[in-house]
Amino acid sequence: MLPFARALGDAGHRVVVACPPDIAGVFDGAPVVVEPVFATMADSAEHLGPAVARLGGPAALATLTATEVTTALLPTLFAGPQVTGSARALLALVESHGTPDLVLRDGGETAAFLVAEHLGVPCVAAPSGAGNVLSPDVVADALAERRDELGFAAPDDPAALHRWGRLDCMPPQFSLAGPQIAPARAFRQDDQVSRGETLPGWVGALPGSRPLVVAGLGTAMPAMAGRAERRAPVDPHAALRTVAEAASRLDAEVVLSTGGLPVDDLALPAHVHPAPWVPQPLLLQVADLFLTHGGYNGVREAVRHGVPLAVLPQFGDQEHNARRIAELGLGAHCTPDAAEIAATCTRLLGDDDVRARMRSAQRAMLALPPVEDAVGVLEDLAARRVPALVA
């Protein structure tokens, strides 16, 4: 969202960003007005409790596949009761800021979709992992409940989740979107979303004669730590330990991004370098492999720098992404076994076919128009009110 909001603001448009307070800082320095009116991810996760209970409780979740858990929880996660509160918060912003000419929403943010639908203004989905799996049929019933709660009229086509189109930052031929998701207009996102970052000096001192593997679980996983009582769908501590054990078996230098989770009790070998945070886009520029949970942003960053992917999915869209990565020949889908993950990583480090396929994806991404070109497309959409934003 940030690159598109920044581009619109730089072009002179008034951009109001509605977000949770815990991510408001992401937009610091951008030419936008930030309104932290949404609940935090942790608070929103509370609404998963009844859905988890219907599945038999947390113990029952452990017996289900990641795909089964995702399918069962997606309607609540992205269109549950919390969406009604978010929609009311957005309506309050409309009262104070005026009716927008265009709504740009996260691909999994359905409150903005409902409010835009109610106001009759164009609404475009920005690139996101949720947007690649959230097909209209998945959330249709839940959204109907939210409309009733809000007093919104039912639309002629309640399944038109992408009536006004959606944006992507992956080349169409390498899209992660599922078959039920509408085609997208693709743009090349900035190489570094956060500007002014540098690599820590110790990374520069790593031996160039050995492969460099970047390993991590992204930003959402660590946020789930200590939330067993809130029914977090996965245990980030266990996942990190599996990744750390796999990294310990590799004949490579491994930068292990922990997200701040503790690893002091692990006996890590000298070639594994834990860090609470690393500037991932910069680090991927010099990496040979990315061992990741398979979130959309991480996949996009890896493709941007031509780095093959070993994907150990955890929740949400990640299982779907792992399958797509394998189908597209950009890497491999890993099972949660440290020895097997290490074997997969070792194979990928020597796989010229995967590296060549990833290089093709990288070239296709570099051929996309820059994010700044989306401004004119969105301006035209807002002015003409013509549905279906497609290439």
Structure, described:
Its EC number is 2.4.1.-. Pfam families: EryCIII-like_C. One of its GO terms (biological process) is antibiotic biosynthetic process. The chain has two domains: 2-188 and 369-384, Rossmann fold, CATH 3.40.50; 201-366, Glycogen Phosphorylase B (Rossmann fold, 3-Layer(aba) Sandwich), CATH 3.40.50. The strands form four sheets. A six-stranded parallel sheet has the order 9-8-7-10-11-12, sandwiched between helices. It is 42% helix and 11% strand. The chain is an alpha/beta fold and 391 residues long.
Topology:
Elements: H1 2-10, E1 16-18, E2 33-35, H2 41-45, H3 48-54, H4 58-61, H5 66-79, H6 82-97, E3 103-106, H7 110-119, E4 123-126, H8 136-150, E5 167-168, E6 185-186, H9 201-204, E7 212-216, H10 220-223, H11 236-248, E8 253-257, E9 272-275, H12 280-284, E10 289-292, H13 296-304, E11 309-311, H14 318-328, E12 331-333, H15 338-349, H16 352-366, H17 374-384
Parallel strand pairs: 1-2, 3-4, 5-6, 7-8, 7-10, 8-9, 10-11, 11-12
Helix pairs in contact: 5-8, 6-7, 6-8, 11-15
| CATH hierarchy class name of the largest domain | Alpha Beta
CATH topology of the largest domain: Rossmann fold
CATH superfamily of the largest domain: Glycogen Phosphorylase B
CATH A-level architecture of the largest domain: 3-Layer(aba) Sandwich
**In terms of per-residue confidence, which ranges show pLDDT below 50 for 5 or more consecutive residues?**
none
Give the mean pLDDT: 89
Share in helix: 40-55%
Quote the beta fraction.
Answer: 5-15%
Largest sheet: 6 strands, parallel
* Biggest sheet strand line-up: 9-8-7-10-11-12
Rg is: 21 Å
Total count of helical runs of at least 4 residues: 17
Helix/strand order, N-terminal first: HEEHHHHHEHEHEEHEHHEEHEHEHEHHH
Count of extended strands:
12
Distance between the termini: 20 Å
Protein name: N-glycosyltransferase
Pfam families: EryCIII-like_C (PF06722)
GO molecular function, one term: hexosyltransferase activity
EC number: 2.4.1.-
